[in-house]
Amino acid sequence: MVPDAALDFVYIDGRHDFAGVTEDLVSWWPKLCPGGLLGGHDWIGNGDASGAVKRWSEGLSATEPRQPAHIYVTADHPASYFMFKAPKPCAAQ
Q: Which of 24, 40, 65, 89 has the greatest count of CB atoms below 10 A from its CB?
């Protein structure tokens, strides 16, 4: 029920299996505004979040050419991951 491009920040801590993480990413990524930040819990250790995020971000880079596939991972345990959605380009003056 959240409209697309309505949120500046999304943090996912749901299912940790490959399919569950992928479903969350597919569902929540469109809800982010351009320049928004998406994060999630349990990068390694409690399921396959890291594998799902890596695979999904590779596909994202192919479909959104301006979107970098860079994933930031925290040093804490269990680690969290974060990705920025590319901002919209500025209009030419």
A: 40
Who has greater pLDDT, 64 or 66? 64
How many helices (H) and strands (E) the chain has is answered by 2, 4
- pLDDT value of residue 59: 79
Q: Do 63 and 52 contact (CB within 8 A), yes or no? A: no
Ranges assigned E (strand) in 19-66: 32-40
The 10 Å Cβ neighbour count of residue 29 is 19
The partner residues of 73 in beta bridges, in order of sequence, read 81
Is the link from the previous residue into 68 a cis peptide, with omega within 30 of 0? no
Q: Is the pTM of this model over 0.90?
A: no
